[in-house]
Amino acid sequence: MKGYVFRGPGQSAWEEVPDPGLREPTDAIVRVDAVTICGTDLHILKGDVPEVRPGTVLGHEAVGEIVETGGDVRSVRPGDRVLVSCISACGRCRYCRESAYGQCLGGGGWILGHLVDGTQAEYVRVPYADLSVYPLPAAVADEDAVLLADIFPTAYEVGVLNGHVRPGDTVAVVGAGPVGLAAIATAHLLAPERVIAVDMSPARLEAARKLGAEAVADAREAPEQLVADLTGGLGADVVIEAVGVPETFELCTRMVRPGGHVANVGVHGKPATLHLEDLWIKNLTLTTGLVDTRSTPTLLRMAAAGRLPTSHLVTHTFPLDRMEEAYDVFGRAAETGALKVVLGVPQREVVPTSAS
Asked: pTM score > 0.85 for this model?
């Protein structure tokens, strides 16, 4: 079979790799029908995730069909159409018993495309299949379902739920990339008064409006002043950081009201300054997190009911064997307008524009 292989910083290719086989009785083999690319994959290619060994097949999100299961797998069987989650869960350790699957101590957590071969291939071995794949409703199309493998549960759990969004809140989302846009969409499930999106890209701010942002702000034009104006000088109840650079983190701490929540979702590669000399008196709650995917069943039901606008985030689709082209398009998002690229579904291209 073929897979997209990391060979070292700046080196990767769609190439022949060994077919996966069952290694444990809890494994399943999935034929990949749809897969997407994550910003974390770009970090890996830059060498920012040293745990990923050269020779690893990348990817941690997929939709496909079960073709083989180990003897201990009970919840799925060959022929089932499933979502492959970005998080694997042993189901037995302390963290799994608390539904904190991202912190699994039993060999799970974020392992696909990280510590073991991932989903950007024709077939993938999924450890702990009973808790790591989800049967898919027929009503959810592949290109919608694959977004529930990572970005929607990440945005909802690490951003919206960790931020304790409540009815009537003002929520500011800094960063209108795929996860930030998913945070805007899922924040509306909890009935905030308004959601404010902050980004530097007009196209992404337009996408944020389509997903429910009542106000948008250019990150270069003092967005904290807009937040202050809309809240009578108080600040946002919840600010979600969805970029992962020091400047945006510090901006979030300036936009939040006393007693509010800053929920960090972005993956930070550099230290960010925590200005405790200003913040110690503000009664803030600051949260970080890796997604646990405990919300995936709920989000799947919402998607099947038409309550999640997943299709708005897919801007490009490709056949699976055009993985290298898809990476190029996704990696040049500022030029191409890419939000999420999906491979393995009928090809189309819908580039977001600033006027529609």
From this structure: yes
